[in-house]
Amino acid sequence: MGNAWGNLGYYRKAVSYYEQSLQMRRRIYGEETAHPDIANSLSNMGNAWWNLGYYRKAASYYEQSLQMRRSIYGEDTAHPNIADSLNNLGNAWGNLGDYIKAISYYKQSLQIKRRIYGEETAHPDIAGSLSNMGNAWGNLGDYRKAVSYYEQSLQLRRSIYGEYTAHPDIADSLTNLGNAWRNLGDHEKAISYHEQALDMIRSI
Q1: Is 138 in contact with 146 (CB distance < 8 Å)?
Q2: Dihedrals phi, psi of 162, to nearest 5 degrees
Q3: Long-range CB contacts (< 8 A, 24+ apart) of 37-45?
Q4: pLDDT tens sequence across 67-103
Q5: pLDDT tens, position by position, 152-174
Q6: Cα–Cα distance measured from residue 8 to residue 192, given in angstroms and rounded to the nearest whole number
Q7: What domains are defined for the chain?
């Protein structure tokens, strides 16, 4: 029910159902038990509060979910749910304006994803993490670093979806590169990337 209301944009209703689900799962598995279902409920609560703009509250739930998942799967285990929690924490701290903290979480998430999918594998989750790293460095004003991450993300996405395929993720990478080059003062490059992005968006 929480997911359904969340998908409809009723995040307060979603919070209410997720809260009930969390309480029920704690009663079933035990208040202090580390269980994947409880960790998922905590993550869902974080998502709902994040969607409502309560990023500190979201970070608190994401942190609880991360600790539980590490307890379940192992502190140093490369597991998608741990990578997901780290990425969520990066998003929350980024929205709170602590980009250094965001980068730290994104970096950990990226490392785990590369361990899961392979260092050289073109995977959408890895491309997404690279894009997040670019955003965070851009927010810190290091646009050259941002460009480097955006370029890596673009290359992966073209490798995944096809060099000449019109895809929203590729358009997103092109837009990000346009913004970064504009901030670096290279307006010619910025216009080129923005034009490519616009052409792609129109053809999707």
Answers
A1: yes
A2: 115, 140
A3: 38/68, 39/65, 39/68, 39/69, 39/72, 39/81, 40/65, 42/68, 43/84, 43/85, 43/88, 44/2, 44/3, 44/6, 44/14, 44/18, 45/15, 45/18, 45/19
A4: 999 999 999 999 999 999 999 999 999 999 999 999 9
A5: 999 999 999 999 899 999 999 99
A6: 37
A7: 1-99 (1.25.40.10), 122-203 (1.25.40.10)
